[in-house]
C-alpha cells in the first residue's frame, strides 16, 4: 500500500485502519507464541530487538500472556530496565527485600523498579514464591502490600508472583 493510499484510507475510515492494524498485531502475537512454543527445546532464548519506544515490552508481555492462556504454562519474557546507580531505588529494593521476609522467610524479590509520583510511589517487583508458600497469589500480594504500606502508606506495591517449583 502506498503512502497516498494509506492517507486516503485513514481520512475515509481511521477506525477501520486501526482495527485492521490491531487484528494484524494480535495475529502476529499468536504466531510468535506458537513459534516460541514449537521450538522451545532447540531455541530456549528469543530476542526482541528494536529502538526505544517500538513496543518490545508490550509485545513481550502479550506473548507471555498468550503462552499462559493457550498452553497453561508460565513463561518469562524478560526485559531488564533495572536502575543500579540510584541510591533511592537501592534503598527501597533493600527495604522490600527485608519486608517480604516478614511474610515468609524464603521469599525473594527481583526486577525491582520504582516510579515516583506526586501522591504515591509505585514499588514494582517480582516475588519468587517457593513451593513452601501455601498462600494463593492474591493472598500473597495482599500480605506483601500490607507490610509495605505499614512501612509507608504512600508506597503502592505492584507485584508479580513467580512460583518456583524446584
Walk me through what this model shows:
Helix content is 51%, strand content 16%. The chain is built from 4 helices and 3 strands. A hairpin with a 4-residue loop joins strand 1 (108-116) and strand 2 (121-129).
Describe the SSE topology:
Elements: H1 3-38, H2 56-71, H3 87-103, E1 108-116, E2 121-129, H4 137-151, E3 155-163
Parallel strand pairs: 2-3
Antiparallel strand pairs: 1-2
Helix pairs in contact: 1-2, 3-4
- Number of E strands: 3
| Intertermini distance | 51 Å
User: Strand order, biggest sheet?
Assistant: 1-2-3
- Assign the CATH superfamily of the largest domain: Cation efflux protein, cytoplasmic domain
List the uncertain runs. none
Corresponding CATH architecture of the largest domain: 2-Layer Sandwich
Number of helices: 4
Morphology call: globular
- What radius of gyration results from the CA coordinates? 20 Å
What's the CATH topology name of the largest domain? Alpha-Beta Plaits
Rounded mean pLDDT is: 84
Relative helix content: 40-55%
CATH first level of the largest domain: Alpha Beta
Q: What is the H/E order? A: HHHEEHE
Q: Please identify the structural class as seen in this structure.
A: alpha+beta
Number of separate structural domains: 2
Largest sheet: 3 strands, mixed
Strand content: 15-25%
